[in-house]
Structure of ABC transporter permease:
Amino acid sequence: MPKKNKQTILDNVKNMRYVDTLSLSMRTFKTRPMRTALTILGVSVGIGAVLFLVSFGYGLQETVLNNITTADALLSLDVSSGKSDVIQLNQDSIDKITNLPNVTEVSPVVALPSQITLKEFTADTTLYTIKPSFLNLSGLVPFRGTFFKADNNGNNQKQVVISSAMAQLFNIDPTDIVGQQINITTFVPRTDSDGQNQVDVIEQTSPFTIVGVVDDERSSLTYVPADVLENITYSTYVGAKVKVSNSEAMTSVREQIINMGFLVSVLQDTIDQVKKIFSIVQVVLGLFGLIALTVSAIGMFNTMTVMLLERTNEIGIMRSIGVTRKDVRKLFIFEAMIMGFLGGLGGVLLGYLGGFLANIGINVLAHYFGGQALDLFSSPTWFIVLIILFSTIIGLLTGIFPAQRAAKINPLDALRYK
């Protein structure tokens, strides 16, 4: 061993404080920089793999949840009468629900079979007559265009929002169909004085303007404000969206509406199920990342063992001048923890870089195939802190065995070791 290194050891080991131990632990970065850097890089790759995969799971979850719901929808109940002919969702029922405590808004909906005509083309559709708030309470967001806009006096205008499936029926791109005018013919069922079922064909006298498109490729739907339709009356609703004041009141409001005899479903139930599924996905992805991390930990353990063999003579000198077994053990553990901590920081950088590059690649492909740009990677702050702490603990665990071996070395045997 060079005289300079031996003198450094003698100067530091006379009073082995934590600062001294930390200083000695950092010497390995100077004496074996390449090996130490590669060991830290190995840990970084393992940590980066865990962060990349788990962040991908979180990103997928947020993307799915953001596409199926809004803040208002999470506070909404979906009320219907089901198939019951006895209990009907009529205006009297709507008034009772509106007067319940913690209910801030009720938005009923009527579904009517209809036809819409755009230029020379005519297509069948289900016409939903709604309050404008129904769309937000349903968790819908405009795929193209906007939702209904009131005039300067606050009155609804003759506007409609259609599904993307409706645009496809007319063979028009959803972007190009916004602003087009359509005519609506509605078929309103009724019962005459003899108890016979009749259908009234009601054609709206003036056209409606398409202002928005919602992303729905399966159903041909049209939404229109209920108060702008002409000559249409109805006594029952197919359903209603009920918004409550806060999430804590949702259970009590739900029970009260169920006691009235109505069916109630909550979007939050679906959200909870989705979160459970993605929790499993995140665990599975994390396990794949742990495989890479396990390989990195084995490499780090091997490095610490080699360092022990190389420094046997050095340990003998330290022990002969009064350094205790505890201090030797502490020295090796500090070195392992430092490498684990730096490996965690490097892993976070690699994980973020990998997610950033992967996200760019995915969005380039999405743009090429006509899709929307998405951010598929998300890393909660608590997970970043946890993974750095976890990396440091791995360093601690891989350093315990070499530290124990180093502490048990006989000083005389160590001095004779070559």
In short: The chain has a mean pLDDT of 80.
